[in-house]
């Protein structure tokens, strides 16, 4: 059972031309499937507030409608119309028939909600003649009855004067008690909030506990008693078996100098340069690390991995973005329980299918998973700790944050509040076993939505939205996390993400030990599934988040630079950096010469919009000679430009989903392309994001030509395919066998000849050279103020593409930015670009490159008399006007 990421949604996404990219959607886990199958009985009536039920059955003079409760009681309904406010709150129900609860029956609501409920349409003159019967969805009425007070409750373990109070929201429960270290303790229900709580003595500290919840469970059609961990857990025993009564303010959980930890200076989101990194990938193959695969690997200052991160930080990288590090549900947390492949993997041929077969044999029981399968949102994952049983995970997560800070890096967490690993009565269902049918998003028939891969959550419901906000604030305040990346953010309401922003902004160094205003937020603003097109609420999508200061991943430049999209049957579809038109690979998927030329020029327009920060109103001349705005450039039927300001769109050429950049280029560049040229193409591709206005992200190891042996979805592919190799002598990961069949077998015919080709396997000179060239570009980006425009107006004034138009060179983009001129030459040959307006002006190669690591870029030239810039093939050269460095 390894749910996350990518397969299920890809076909639908391709049809919808969403081209998800930075994270497509996890495959449905066996657990999720099992939980969904238990939803046998439908629940088509929706009780949206204490007075209103929406149900698609139509009332007639011959019918009567009512709710029937477990004790045989009846709540009478009468036809009504939804108000404008109700329609706005429930747009997907706006056209449905509505019913008003008889005022005489409304005081029965709280009791009725604590047992089974049925909506019945019967013959008006015969109570026993039932015409329609269905279950009832209750999240709306629960919010109406309880949310106002419940929102103010402090849930989970809260300490006052050394005494803990444990609180859980369970308004539909018939009884809740506390199982504390093997003994049962009664809890008290607050009727106004639906919160059950109990206050204990100081000796409860660090004791294991679970809640024992007696509740009606629609998924199995009966009342059950669930023993379940705390959704607001602050600590756990191994494998998440029990919560612990832990106070995160306990000094024993803090590393030395934690209270006084000095973070690197915060940079605005528009200037963030981010390395996306999976904790286990980082160090599991690093022979110089004393703590391979653990949080503590980030405290090994002398390891190859930490030395490389430090070099990146000194060059301008500001954040490390950690793939999920909260408690997730698909890895045995004790190392002794983790299976390992039993094959001699290194002895097998580079193009063999045996490596992937062997890795797949233990994938369900090994120590590897990306972790997009949340179990407890606010506890560090135990498999990365030296001991998963108890407080080590808390202390060592903090040591990791401190280690990154000492290396000059701030910490971003990848958070996944849009789904859970399981729902219903599954053992790994937490939320749904406490308040069944509330936390998960339900479809019209009452089944749990799974468009995100797994049982979806409903942050539009008050208490799920509160959980998101409370969890984020805990990570920020108690763990000093500096930023958050929201997985599938478009499945959240925009209001929920703005509530997170507001809560963070309220954190101050004096009161909370952190400056919440400096914490950055970004996420995947993809638009799909049951929430698509604002069907249920205003979503946190690319378009809707513009102007909020919260960034969304932009897939526009990624596709233009790499070529094609994540769902192509033929992976050889080329783009700007991979040789489209200028170095064709012979694939019929690329079309004829004229088609390739037209596609390439359009890709260049997309890249120009990306270099502006994906601004909707940025105006330039496109390759057709037309004066256009960014929003008028087409991206698969959608506007290419959607941002209102620099910082609204996050640029990237690769991330953990889909093939690494090196692997994508391996497929797309002509097979005869040398390793040296492949390395140069990689740097060109990275430069389009690195040198853009707005934030940019790259996958850790991409500057080192990181490969996953062509695996497009490595969420469960183990260390063999995923580990980062920091020492160039160990290679870049290419040629470690055919990638796992589950997501790659259809591409094996293309992969097999590449995996044995010497031209595709880089050596140390290519690996270290690409990294050094990338770091030079980072230094330029972070030291030249022209790259950091604060407003759309500033970008419009500073940025231009002087050679854009009908005469533009295919494969070359010339960008003028203040006193800088940047030439992106993606072609395999040397190119000259004459800018008549600059004739007579004095330009020279930027000092960082003129004295930098790349000998090839140093052969770039400038002819003052004509304003001509000459740049070698597959090279990005930055020129600066005399005396203008750093302006």
Automatic annotation (TrEMBL):
Recorded family membership: Belongs to the glycosyl hydrolase 13 family.
Keywords linked to the UniProt accession: Signal
Glycoside hydrolase family 13 N-terminal domain boundaries: 155-233
Pullulanase N2 domain: residues covered: 42-144
CDD domains hit by this protein: AmyAc_Pullulanase_LD-like, E_set_Pullulanase
Pfam families: CBM_48, Pullul_strch_C, Pullulanase_N2
Ranges of residues in domain Alpha-1,6-glucosidases pullulanase-type C-terminal: 730-880
NCBIfam families reported for this sequence: pullul_strch (TIGR02103)
Name of the molecule in the record: Alpha-1,6-glucosidase
Xref: Gene3D superfamilies: Glycosidases, Golgi alpha-mannosidase II, Immunoglobulins, Rab geranylgeranyltransferase alpha-subunit, insert domain
Taxonomy, superkingdom: Bacteria
Signal peptide per UniProt: 1-34
């Amino acid at each position: 059972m390894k749910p996350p990421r990518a397969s299920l949604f890809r076909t639908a996404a391709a049809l919808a031309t969403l081209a998800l990219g930075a994270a497509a959607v996890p495959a449905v886990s066996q657990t999720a499937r099992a939980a969904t199958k238990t939803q046998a009985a439908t629940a088509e009536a929706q009780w949206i507030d204490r007075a209103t039920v929406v149900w698609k059955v139509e009332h007639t003079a011959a019918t009567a409608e009512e709710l029937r409760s477990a004790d045989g009681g009846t709540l009478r309904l009468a036809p009504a119309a939804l108000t404008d406010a109700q329609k706005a709150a429930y747009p997907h129900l706006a056209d449905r028939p509505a019913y008003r609860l008889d005022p005489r029956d409304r005081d029965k609501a709280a009791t009725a909600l604590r047992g089974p409920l049925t909506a019945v349409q019967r013959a008006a003159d015969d109570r026993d003649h039932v015409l329609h019967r269905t279950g009832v969805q209750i999240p709306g009425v629960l919010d109406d009855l309880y949310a106002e007070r419940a929102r103010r409750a402090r849930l989970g373990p809260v300490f006052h004067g050394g005494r803990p109070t444990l609180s859980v929201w369970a308004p539909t429960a018939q009884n809740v008690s506390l199982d504390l270290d093997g003994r049962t303790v009664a809890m008290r229900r607050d009727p106004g909030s639906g919160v059950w709580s109990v206050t204990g003595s100081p000796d409860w500290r660090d004791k294991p506990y679970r809640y024992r919840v007696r509740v009606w469970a629609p998924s199995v059609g009966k009342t059950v008693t669930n023993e379940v961990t705390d959704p607001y857990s602050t600590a756990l025993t191994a494998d998440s078996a029990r919560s612990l009564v832990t106070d995160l303010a306990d000094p024993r959980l803090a590393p030395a100098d934690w209270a006084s930890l000095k973070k690197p200076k915060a940079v605005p989101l528009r200037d963030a340069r981010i390395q996306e990194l999976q904790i286990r990938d980082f160090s599991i193959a690093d022979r110089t690390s004393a703590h391979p695969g653990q949080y503590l690997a980030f405290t090994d200052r002398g390891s190859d991995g930490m030395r490389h991160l430090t070099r990146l930080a000194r060059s301008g990288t500001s954040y490390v973005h950690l793939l999920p590090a909260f408690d997730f549900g698909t890895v045995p947390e004790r190392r002794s329980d983790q299976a390992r492949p039993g094959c001699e993997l290194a002895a097998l041929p580079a193009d063999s299918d045996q490596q992937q077969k062997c890795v797949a044999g233990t994938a369900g029981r090994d120590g590897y998973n990306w972790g997009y399968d949340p179990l407890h949102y606010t506890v560090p994952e135990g498999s990365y700790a030296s001991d998963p049983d108890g407080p080590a995970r808390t202390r060592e997560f903090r040591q990791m944050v401190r280690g990154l800070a000492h290396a000059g890096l701030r910490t971003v967490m990848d958070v996944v509040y849009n789904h859970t690993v399981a729902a219903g009565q599954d053992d790994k269902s937490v939320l749904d076993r406490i308040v069944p049918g509330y936390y998960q998003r339900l479809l019209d028939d009452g089944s749990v939505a799974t468009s995100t891969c797994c049982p979806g959550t409903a942050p539009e419901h008050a208490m799920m939205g509160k959980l998101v906000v409370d969890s984020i604030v805990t990570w920020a305040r108690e763990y000093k996390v500096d930023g958050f990346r929201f997985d599938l953010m478009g499945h959240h309401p925009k209001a929920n993400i703005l509530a997170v922003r507001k809560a963070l902004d309220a954190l101050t160094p004096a009161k909370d030990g952190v400056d919440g205003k400096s914490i950055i937020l970004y996420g995947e603003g993809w638009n799909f599934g049951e929430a698509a097109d604002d069907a249920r609420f205003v979503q946190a999508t690319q378009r809707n988040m513009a102007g909020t200061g919260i960034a969304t991943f932009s897939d526009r430049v990624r596709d233009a630079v790499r070529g094609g999209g994540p769902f192509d049957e033929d992976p050889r579809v080329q783009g700007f950096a991979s040789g489209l038109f200028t170095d064709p690979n012979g694939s019929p998927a690329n079309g004829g010469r004229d088609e390739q030329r037209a596609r390439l020029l359009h890709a260049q327009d997309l890249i120009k919009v990306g270099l502006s920060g994906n601004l909707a109103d940025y105006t330039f001349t496109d390759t057709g000679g037309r004066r256009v705005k960014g929003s008028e450039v087409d991206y698969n039927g959608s506007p290419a430009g959607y941002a209102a300001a620099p910082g609204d769109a996050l640029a990237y050429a690769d991330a953990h989903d889909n093939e690494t950049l090196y692997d994508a280029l391996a497929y797309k560049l002509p097979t005869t392309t040398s390793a040296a040229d492949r390395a140069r193409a990689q740097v060109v591709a990275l430069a389009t994001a690195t040198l853009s206005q707005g934030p940019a992200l790259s996958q850790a190891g991409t500057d080192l030509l990181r490969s996953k042996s062509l695996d497009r979805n490595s969420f469960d592919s183990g260390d063999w395919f995923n580990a980062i190799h920091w020492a160039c002598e160990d290679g870049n990961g290419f040629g470690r066998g055919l990638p796992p069949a589950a997501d790659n077998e259809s591409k094996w015919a293309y992969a097999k000849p590449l995996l044995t080709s010497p031209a595709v396997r880089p050596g140390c000179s290519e690996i270290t050279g690409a990294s050094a060239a990338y770091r030079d570009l980072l230094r330029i980006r972070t030291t030249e103020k022209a790259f950091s425009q604060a407003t759309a107006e500033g970008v419009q004034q500073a940025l231009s593409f002087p050679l854009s138009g009908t005469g533009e060179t295919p494969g070359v983009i010339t960008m003028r930015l203040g006193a800088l001129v940047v030439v992106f030459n993606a072609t395999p040959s040397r190119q000259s670009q004459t800018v008549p307006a600059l004739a007579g002006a004095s330009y020279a190669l930027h000092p960082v490159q003129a004295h930098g690591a790349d000998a090839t870029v140093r052969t770039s030239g400038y002819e003052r008399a004509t304003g001509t810039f000459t740049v070698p093939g597959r090279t990005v050269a930055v020129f600066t006007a005399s005396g203008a460095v750093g302006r």
